[in-house]
Every structure is written in C-alpha cells, then in structure tokens.
Amino acid sequence: MARQARQWRTGAAGIAGVAVLGLTLTACGGAKVGDSSSEAGGSGSSGKCATFNLAVNPWVGYEANAAVLAYVAENDLGCKVVQKDLKEEIAWQGFGTGEVDAVVENWGHDDLKKKYITDQKTAVDAGPTGNEGLIGWYVPPWLAKEHPDITDWNNLNKYAAEFKTSESGGKGQLLDGDPSFVTNDESLVKNLKLDFKVVYAGSETALIQAFRKAEKNKEWMIGYFYEPQWFMSEVPLVKVKLPEYKEGCDADEEKIACDYPVYKLDKIVSKKFSESGSPAYDLVKNFTWTNDDQNTVAKYIAVDKMDPEAAAKKWVDANRDKVEAWIK
Amino acid sequence: MAVALEKTAPLAGVRQVRRRTVVAAILVAWLVLFVIFRGRQTLALAAADLTDLHRWFNDVNDSIGANRNSNPLFLYFFNEIRLVIDTLVTFVQELISQPSADRPVPQVGWLGVVGIAGYVSWAVGNWRVALLAVAGFTFMGLQGLWQESMDTLALILCAVFVALLFAIPIGVWAGLSDRVNRIVTPFLDFMQTMPTFVYLAPLTLFFLIGGASATIATAIYAAPPAIRITAHAIRSVPGTTVEAADSLGATRRQALLKVLLPMSKRTVVMGINQSIMAALAMVTIAALIDAPGLGKTVVQALQSLDVGTAFNAGLAIVVMAIVLDRVTTAASTREEAARRSGGRFLSWRRPLLAAGGVVTVVLVYMSHTYVWAAEFPGEGGIGTSIASAADTATTWAQDNLSGLTNAFRDGITNGLLNPFQSLLTDSPWWLVAAVLITLGAVLGGWRAGVTAAVCVGLLVGTGVWSDAMTTMASTLVATVLVMVLGVAMGVWMGRSLLVDRVLRPTLDAAQVMPPFVYLVPFLALFGATRFTAIVAAIVYAAPVAIKIIADGVRAVPETTVEAATSAGCNTWQTITKVQLPMARSALTLATNQGLIYVLSMVVVGGLVGAGALGYDVVAGFSQGQLYGKGLAAGLAIVLLGVMFDRITQAAARRTSA
C-alpha cells in the first residue's frame, strides 16, 4: 500500500511540475496565431475569378511561363491559383476530369491534340505563347569552334569514329534525351545514311549532364536538344544543320530525312475553362512573350536559383507594359 | 515429401557435382549454337515500333479515358473511394502540414508535432528512440524543410494506414489458409515488381490528380511487405500452441484473437516497419502526380540540376526513414526489453506515461495557439550549408575522379556486359528460351522449369523480347557485382559489431535516398550509359544483400568459429571454410533479394542511359502512343522478376535440403 501511495505521489508531483512549466511557457507565449497582421491573404479584389488550376510541366521554361501567369493572375486579377506539377500526358488527361484548366507551353503533341481536342472535345487551343521551339542535333561549343564543318550533317560521317562510346556498338553515338519530346532520330540516322547509333539517355537531367561534361572536358559529343532552354545560357550549344524542313517532309515517319519543324509553342485550355468567363482565361489567351523574355525568367530560376514567384515578380516589375497588354 | 528428402540426402554430394556438369554442358551448347545462329530470329523491335498487343493496350486506355464521365463504375465506385481517401488526406494535412480553413497555419505546429513524435516513440518504444525522434524532426525543421517534411509525413501516414487496413486482414487470412496464400502471392509479386510509372497515369484517370491518387499509388507499393510478413508471422506460431488452445476448447475466433494475433504481434510490427519503408521509397515518384512534400523539392531541384538542394531534401527523407525505422523496430521489441529490464521500471511506467501525455497536450495547445510554436523559426540555414557542401563535394568528385572512373566503366562494359548482352540479344529467341527453361529445371526442379517456360512464353508475347534480354544482361551483371560487394562487406560487418554499427546507417541511407540525388554526380562520372544504371542498381540493392549476409555470418555459432581458430585456421580460412559455407542459406536469400531489388531499379536505369525495358516504361509514361508498349515492358519486368525469384528460391531449397 505504502509503495503504491508513494508512487501516486511522485506521479502527481510530476504532473504538477509539468502544469507549472506549461503555465510559465504560456504566460510568456508571444504572438498568437490569427491575431497578427502578417497573414494578409486574399487581396480582396477576388472579383469573379474563381480558382485557376494551372498545370506545371516539368521543365524550367514551362515553369517560367507558369510563374509569370500565376503571379499576374494572383496579384492583378485576384485569382486563387493552384499550380499542379504534372507530366504532359497527365496534365492533358486532367482537362477531361476538370482538374486542370490550362497548359501554357505545349510542344506540338499532335497525338494529344487529336485525342483531347478533336475526339474527346475536352480541350481547346488558346493560341501561341509567342515562343518558338527549335528541336535538333547540337554539339558543345568547343567542338563547333575547333571543327567548324561539324555543324553540317554532310560531314558527320567523317567524324563518326570520334563519337564512339561504350554504348554505341562501334558506331558514333547520337544521344537522345527525355522521351517526352518528339524524336525522329532513328529514321533520320537511317535515311541520311549516317554511321551513328541513337542511344537513349532517358531523361533531360542525363542529357544536360552529358553536354556539361563534354564541354568541360572537351569530349566529343552530339545529341538531341531544344531551345528555349535555360541550359543554353550556361553552355551555348551549337545546332547542327540537317536537310531543310519542308511542309510535309515529315509525313511518313519511316522516311523522314529532314530537320524538325520550328514549333510555334502554344497554350491549351480545358473547354470548361474557356466557357467559364473567368478573367484568368482571358489572361491565358492574351499571354504572349518572346524567347528572350522566357530565357530571362528561366535563368532567374535555374541559374540564379530564385524562387519561381520571386523570379516572376522581378520580370513583371520590369515589364509592366507587356503585362498590361495581357490583362486589358 | 519427408521420405523423399531423406532418401536424397546421402546422394546430395554426388548430385551437386552432377548438376554442375549439366549446367556447364548447357552453357557450352549455348555458346556453340550461338556461333551458328547468331543474329537470326532475335525478335528485335525498334524504339518507336509497336505490336498489336501494344496498340490494343492503347485502345483500352483511351476508351477508359473517353467514357470516364458516363461510366457508372466511375460515378458510383471509384469516385466514392476517391472521396473517402481525399477526405482522410486533407484531414491529416490540415492537422500537421497545410493551412486549414481560416488559419494561415496547420492545426498543430512544429512544437506539437515534435512533442507528439517524442511522446509516441517513448510510449511504444523507449526513451532512446524518443530522443532520436525529437532530434530527427527538429533537424528537418532546421533544414528549412518543415512544411515539406510534414506533407510527406502526412502522405506516408495515410498511405500506410490505408495499406494496413487491407494488408493485415489479408495477411492473417493468407497465414491461416494455404490456398489463399497461393492465390495472393502472385498478386503481391505483381504489386512489388510492376514499375509504378506504368500505373501512375491510369491511376490519375481513375482517382484524379491529388491526394487520393498519390496515397493509392503509395499504398499499392506499401501493402505487399505487410501482407507477406503478417502471413509469415501467423504461420510461424508453433503448431503445438494452437493445438493446446484447441484442446482447451477455444473457438476459431478465440484462437485467432487470443493466441495467434498476440503471439505474432512482434513480427507484424516488423511488417508495418517494412510497409513504411516501402512508402518512403515512393515519395519522389508520387511527386510526379502533384503529391506535395519532399519529393517535389527533389524533382524540382533536379530540373535545373541543383544537386545541393535535392540532396538536402533527400537527406530529410533519409532522416525521416531512420526515425520511423528505429521507432517501429523498438516498438516490436519493447515488451521483451521491458521484461528483461525487470519490474522496477514497469511500476513507474504508468505515472510517467500520464505525465508525458500532459506535457504533450500542453505542447500541442501552445503550437496551436502561438506563432512561434506553430511556424518553425529560422531560415533553414543548416539546409543551405548542407546544400552547398553537397555541391562542393559533387564538383570535387566530378573534377578529380573522372579519369579513374572511365577506365573502370570501360573495363566492366567491354569485359563483362557487352559479351554477355550480345550472347543474350543476338541468340535466336528459341535458343535463349530453351537455355532458361533447362537451367530452371536443372537448378530448381521441374516446377521451376515449368514456371520458367510460362514466363518465357509470356515474355515472347509481350513483344519486347529483345529489350528484355538487354535488361536481363545488365540485371545479372549488376547482381553479380552486388553479391561481390555483399560478401565482402557482409563478412566484414558480420565479424565486427563496431563496423556494423558504423556502416548500418549508411546502408539505410543508400536505400531510401531518392536515386536521382546521387545519380546526377554518377552521370557526370560515367556518362549516360548502361554502367551508370548498373551503379544505381548496386547502390540500392547492395545494402539489402550486405545486411542479410552480415546477419547470416553473425548467426554462425561462436563455438564453431572458436573451434576452427583453435584448429589452426587463419582468418581467411575461417571465413572461406567455416563462416561462408555455414551462412549458405543467407547467401542464397541475399542473391534472391539482390536480384529483385536490382530489377526494381530498371526504370531508374532507363532514366540514365540503360535503354531497353526501363526506357520503354519511361517513354510509355511520357507519350500516349507508347503507353501500350510501356505497359508491356512493365509486364516483362514482372515476368523476369517472377522467373528469377522462383528459380533462385527453388535452387535455395534444393541446396539446403
């Protein structure tokens, strides 16, 4: 009995001690949640703009578009912007399920356009972003400087042996990247009779790292790349000239022997969003800017490591006139 | 069965020799036929080419998408599931990670979460893991990743909860009935080896983008270990105990609730532990469908190749994994430990628990009320230092190790990988098929042979045979390297407790650190090659093999080792003649697990230059018209996994018999 009582007493003492400690801490607690002015939130001018679901595809150029659009929609239109990080295919799928309102940098994707715009009728085209997308074969700058004739495809076979790697089975290696992008490289190599083998790096990360390494160590390397791309401001890759693109030369995938077309990058929105009368839709529709504009914001994000929102603010503050034209 | 085993036992030695000769004969025959038939009927398929099966998969996928809004199955079944899980996720998020209703911060702030973590760890484990939990959670805050960590924790908690809701009943059922176990096993294999990339896109079609899809994707991967281990736990309750309960007149229900479950509790908790670890491995993948948290930080940082930031977030994942692992492990052994420490402590336990509870409630209240306890103070300066240190280390390694690593890569690629791969891919398919089936039968018995035959047949059916052979070559080379590393490190760890203590956290880290964080430096060292993919697989798979072998070596009775030493064996002889042979079953288990873990890295390999099946899966995830091919490639990975697993398991059973 006695032991039990002692136990109880120590227990009670412990609890009392804790309570005192708690009270002391509470007394000198400081600012309370909810009574500070720090949470300004919702700038009041919410108007008729409801929630704006903006897909963010996983590359920095897209992130730049999305950051600026989100910043303007939030601060000028008072929308509640929900940014969703998604791969392209899943973002388009979201048009149908109502989870995504807009995709703001689309590279071609005729298959998706057919599926969601023509067949399912859940998405509509919202015009070009003003950016022009180039796809093609690139070499690191040191190589273009030392062997200027390498930038013409006719001379590629001459150098094929230099591009050999452990992966290319005795031929020259042409490194391809993220499978999200359209590639005709296997047909091109075959139809241009090049002594090369397409090797799939499998991701943009792997491709950029390969180019970075090649430039730094002066290694031979040729690969699939595209612009606008933030990496170009770190290592300005040089494009290799392929046979010129002519309308329809890429009609038969098996027989392609010409360069990639210049992609007019565009915006796609969900049908519902386009009919909602939301000011955010007008913003998306009116949004256009140049490759330089995008590169600037992308550089803020990727090279200067700025927060996307801060990067957007910096650009918007410096380019108020352009923004005004979108929201008029 | 027992009779048959007894009969073969004396013949085992002879058999083993004969088996070796047969295997050698098969390999020689393969080489001869390879030279004759090289390059014919290899079933190669170009990157953009599809088969009818792939197109059919595409059509099915498209029609589901097109009919989503009118199909009653969606309206009344999937949507309801989504709603329930979404509500659960939102609730947990508003509790600890996301601003809720009219508050700018979650209901419970950092101080409250740290308090709860410490209290719960102490209550279910011991004070040591409680300290670890408090330190770990505080560290995540100091890294500047408090909210991200809590988002990840919320997702993990929900996913594991949902997974256990199904896993424990199914596991118990599979433990009680052999038939259920046989039916469930292939499904579990499927859930564990099917690459998540394959079902990620359809999942968002079924459950939309958001918390529900991320939770379900994670739960699918997290459930199988819990089911397997629960079933195993129920099975390993001694038969005599159950009979005793029966003879005392216990009903089936009573026997289950009063005997089987309490007796297997400890192992079931280990199942929960494995389930949590599996869920943590999904953090970066779930980020691809907009799951908030640390995974997103990793993925975004890597878009601009910001290794430092990615490493910082990866480190937070590792810290969380280590805390959760140690706490659940302590929970599974608590009762035993408490019993050993004697009753003195037990009498103190209840009042202390009550006091601790009161402290926790006070902390939670304060973190709900006051800003300083709600939002983690500071700018995350430690995180910035960690990031820049990681950057410096990466740059140094890239600048200084490049020449060395290239020679190593070329040696392995030209000496081992290329010949083996060309043997597999340039042989006619029927030749490789015949070799696989006969090897299966010789090593694992006729049952394994039949499994191999079925798997090979289905592999041909998937239409990605040639890619499957390329992947198989890399996988086997990686497994060999894993085992070399596993034996070397495992023996070292098994022989010295100190080494074990030092290395184990590193091994844990290698298993849960998101692969891409260390792959960026590897890419700089080895380029986008199959070898980089092999290295990634080794980093992920070797820890498992090392741990299993270390445990096996340690389990060799000390008296045996002492006897060997006193008989004049030197260290080398002790290891090769005594410890390794006696740990043979651990070695085969390590091979089996090493292979399965290597296979689970095939998709990651596809992202860094391995091509083949991994690339097919990634491409299927990225491009609509390749979806079907990606699915077929995913199935091929599952088939390779099942085939290897059954053959190695059967072989292990034979050698130990």
From TrEMBL, chain A:
UniProt-listed InterPro entries: ABC_Gly_betaine_transp_sub-bd
Single Gene Ontology MF annotation: transmembrane transporter activity
Start and end residues of each ABC-type glycine betaine transport system substrate-binding domain: 53-317
GO cellular component: ATP-binding cassette (ABC) transporter complex
SUPFAM superfamilies xrefs: Periplasmic binding protein-like II
Residues making up the signal peptide according to the UniProt record: none
Record-annotated membrane-spanning stretches: none
Protein name: Glycine/betaine ABC transporter substrate-binding protein
Native species: Streptomyces dysideae
TrEMBL record, chain B:
Chain ranges of the ABC transmembrane type-1 domain: 149-328, 468-648
Classification via PROSITE patterns: ABC_TM1
GO molecular function, one term: amine transmembrane transporter activity
SUPFAM superfamilies reported in the protein's UniProt record: MetI-like
Family label: Belongs to the binding-protein-dependent transport system permease family.
InterPro entries per the UniProt record, alphabetical: MetI-like, MetI-like_sf
Organism phylogeny: Bacteria, Bacillati, Actinomycetota, Actinomycetes, Kitasatosporales
Annotated source species: Streptomyces dysideae
Recorded topology in the membrane: Multi-pass membrane protein
Record GO cellular component, one term: ATP-binding cassette (ABC) transporter complex
Protein name: ABC transporter permease
